[in-house]
Amino acid sequence: MKVLRPARPIRIAGTGSYLPERAVDNAALVALGAPLTEDEIVQLCGIRQRHWVAPEQATSDLALEAARRALAAAQLRADAVDRLLLGTISPDHPSPSTACKVQHALGMRMAPALDFSAACSSFVYGLDLAARAVLTGEDAVLAISADIRSRYLDVEDRSTCALFGDGAGAAVVTPGEDADAGLLAIGLLADGRGAESVYVPAGGSRHPASARTVAERAHFIRMASGPQVYLAAAEGMIGTAKLLLDEVGLGFEDIALVVPHQPNRRILDRMGRLAGIPAGKIYVNVDRVGNISGATVAVALDEILRGGLVGAGDRVLLLAAGAGYTAGAALLVVDEALLRASRGC
Amino acid sequence: MTDLRRLEKVRELVAGYAEVTADDAPLELDSLSMVQLAEDLEAEFDFVLRADDLEPTSFGSVAAITAFLGRVAP
């Protein structure tokens, strides 16, 4: 893994997130036909509720709201953004990009906007792309991750029906001034051997939508082996974290808070156990928001900043692993200005 | 640990999640049971299971699990 260690300071100037209003608890999920009991769901994944979109909402709506909140925190006008990056695996349409719709809705004029796909790792991938854009001369890049997994959910599938929620998160990435704060290191990985471990079989060019694909329920998320994914996710996050920490000469003991992807409470517990990270140093929100795919880490980062869970100078390790397989880690040292921005002062 | 003791322990742990009619009979475990069994085996035999280990050849039956453990946690 080649770790990006920015030659000039790069910082996050503001974050924002959005969760749809509708909270679906396990009782509601069972009432919808999930073939699990409420107790089984909690045992399986530790999730007690997740947020799902309203019928009229699409991914761009969620992304737009998160982006507006991030821009407000950063006290930046949309027309000052040089580039918009949107990580999603649930775009509004196969084409054009959802990013273009968000760009227009924000009033960004001609700034480039594009979608990219890295599944649950998309926010860390987005930070990497944004940091590189700033390093090559741009002044403000909006990195958004947004996903609506409820539209791809088979409520009759025991292995996936309880896991996923909807939401969006965003960060404004800009040049910094302090070499010891901001985004100090980012590392990404992919391993295509896992490409069909968690995937949506139909609806793309391999199996275009047809009466047959609909009848076969092939437009829903499929997870061939939940236990294998459980092990691979923990391995991916620990392995990526260690590679990044080794590169910067730190250990988990030097990190104030680990903010991992939240696929399942059991995976987070396993990660902590195997890596020797105390439970209190791993941020957990999976119980109330579920797995929001690429938006997960973005939402979690916004929550810890706005919730005052970290202080200036704290090292935060963002970790992700997802379908593909993809994985990523980013080391963020929180600066005072970001804390003030997050608290609206 | 002797092979027989290992086999007895695996039978005992697997029985918590599935009916075992014979050591070489295919195991029918759902995702939750498989994960819980994996955690039980790790705790009992003091090893770390890797994603690549979870193949039918290594976790398909009591006999297969026992043979697998003989290799990774002798």
Count every helix of chain B, treating DSSP H or I runs of 4 or more residues as helices. 4
| Average pLDDT over all residues of chain A | 95
Question: Taking all residues together, what is the mean pLDDT of chain B?
Answer: 86
Identify the strand order in the major beta sheet of chain A. Answer: 1-7-6-4-5
Radius of gyration of chain A: 19 Å
**Amino-to-carboxy terminus distance of chain B:** 7 Å
Please give the share of residues in helix of chain B.
55-70%
List the keywords:
heterodimer; A: 345 residues; alpha/beta; 5-stranded mixed sheet; 11 helices; 13 strands; 22% strand; B: 74 residues; mainly alpha
Short description:
Chain A is of the alpha/beta class and 345 residues long. Chain A is 33% helix and 22% strand.
Walk me through what this model shows.
The complex is a heterodimer of chains A (345) and B (74). With 345 residues, chain A is of the alpha/beta class. Helix content of chain A is 33%, strand content 22%. In chain A, the strands form four sheets. A five-stranded mixed β-sheet of chain A has the order 1-7-6-4-5, sandwiched between helices. Chain A is globular and about 55 Å long. Chain B is an all-alpha fold and 74 residues long. Chain B has helices at 3-15, 31-45, 56-59, 62-72. In chain B, helix 1 (3-15) packs across helix 4. The longest helix of chain B has 15 residues, at 31-45. Classes of the chains: A alpha/beta (345), B mainly alpha (74). Chain A binds chain B through residues 40, 43-44, 158-159, 225-232, 235, 266, 270, 274, and chain B through 30-32, 34-35, 38-39, 48-51, 53-54.
